[in-house]
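The passage that follows is intended for readers who have already worked through the single-chain material. We present the inputs for a multi-component assembly, then the predicted structure in tokenized form, and finally a short commentary. You are encouraged to pause after the input and sketch how you expect the pieces to fit together before reading on.
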Amino acid sequence: MAVKESLPAPDELTDEQQEAVEHLLYRLADDEFVVAERYTEWQVRSPTLESDLALANIAQDELGHARLWYDLLEDFGYTESELVWERDPSEWRHSTLVEQPFAEGDWADAIVRSYLYDQAEYIRLEALEESSYPRIRDRIQKIIQEEDYHREHAENWMSRLAEEKQGLERLQTAFDRLFPYALTLFAPTDEDVEDRIDELGLRSDPLDVMREEWLDVVVPFFEDLGVSVDDAELPEQYDVHHSEFDLPEHVGRDQSHTDAWFDLQEEFTHTYQKLDRHEANRIMKDPDEA
Amino acid sequence: MDIEEVKRRAGPREFSPKDDLPEEYRKAATRMIQFHANSEIMGAYLERPFIREAPSLDRKLACSAKVQDEIGHGQLLYRAAESLGLKTRDEMLDELANGEGKFLNCFHYPMESWVETPMIAFFVDGAAMRRQATLKRTSWEPYAHAMDKVCFEEGFHVKHGEAILHELMTGSKKEQEMTQEAFEVWWPRIIQFFGPTNDKSTHHGFASEVGLKQMGNDELRTAFLNAYIPKAEKYGLEIPDEPRIRKNDDGTYEVVEEDLDWDEFFTIAKNDYDGSHQQINGRQKAQEAVDWVREVLDEHEAREFGSTQQQAAD
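Having made your guess, compare it with the prediction:
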């Protein structure tokens, strides 16, 4: 796809352009924030000290990315408080994959989730490398580099777990539960706005193309490990829109969420609420200055 | 080497795994380093809920990084303890899970509110840093070496704790009051961190003689109070009336022992306080929930090892 003409600076966008950029950024930022929030549950609970350190690293990378994407939303005048701490939970746009709670000790869930997520993440970041929005384009390289390590981490763990009967069974269970939610990673926030995102060249591949690409990577990988995907409801090839059958009841992208999300949101805003805070204090340099 | 020679040679970073050291030294060093490593893990366990509670993105990142650092310190310290040849890391982690492993008094008290976080990250870590700085000169070289990295990172933790305290004490009146209340609860525990004065503990004497310990508890407590009473006051915290702290003519402070609850302290030392049970059992449950993963890893290793053996035979 040819590179589209670059969009102007944040304060010079038309309302329609700005809406498209915002939708795209909420997809990115909310996913990264919530997936990280869940990963941190493994801190001081992982199977070994080494895996504890590794997952903490990944959580911090994702939080750092969330911070970079929220910062671009701040270009439109929003504050961190409005974006994270005071936003109504029913307005968030992350995929319902990342909000799912972990059952205690279900390390296979953490690994399968991160595998499904990180593969999708890599594909969508690649589709942003030539984004027509310079502020997004400029931040991709740093993020993509870190994602390489995340995919390697998940793949190594999956291979090791799959070698033993117990591990394979756990992977299968996690796959069966998570896969429908993972499909929501590619669901539209709003069909019209998603079309506009593509038309404006904000990303180089539309959602259904990325989903096909993702399926072509993850399905053979699971099958090679011995995890059956037969029961998974795979979307029909080249089906432009997701049919109702493919997706779970709550998609996330369209702001519908599972109960677990509302509990999680209450927990992470607890201190902010309890202390009657009205702003979130910054301690690190602004990403544009760093 | 006999114990007399150990005492004669005892100096900073004097002994390493190359030395043939008596059992008595190895035991004392293992006990001390294992305690330290356990404390890193239990400190991390205590603080982990506050990654979620942190009220800003930057602070959440910092909290996650701090907990990760503590686990990293645990990893380093267990390695330093393992190098004495008496216990493996898995044995030490199992002892911690089943309630035999000992750790710092302050990590036996569950935390409920964000306003308590600087009590650990500023005061307790600040106290720990005093002790740790002296351990760069401990006689077991792997321990001293671990302290280089630990002390470097602890410096950041104390700054992090201090920044949270500053934020709270310059925040709303409500925040300031809540922080003062938390401080009053934690202050005696923080002072007890250094143990009773004129500690008659038998471990202490021997550990000093063989160069494992570099400074006594009394000296460390005094140094801590000298530095931290002014800091607490600077941030607007009021030092509670009890325990009474007397200021000596030379400007140093002295704590009135009897104002502190030593029954509680010694109950904690036996892992028998309510909070001890809560913290130890909570972590044990988490460790057991992922037993299956470690089993898979062991099977994986056995298989890899087996095949390597076979290759070698070929």
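Commentary: The first helix of chain B runs from residue 3 to 9. The first strand of chain B starts at residue 245 and ends at 247. How closely did your sketch match?
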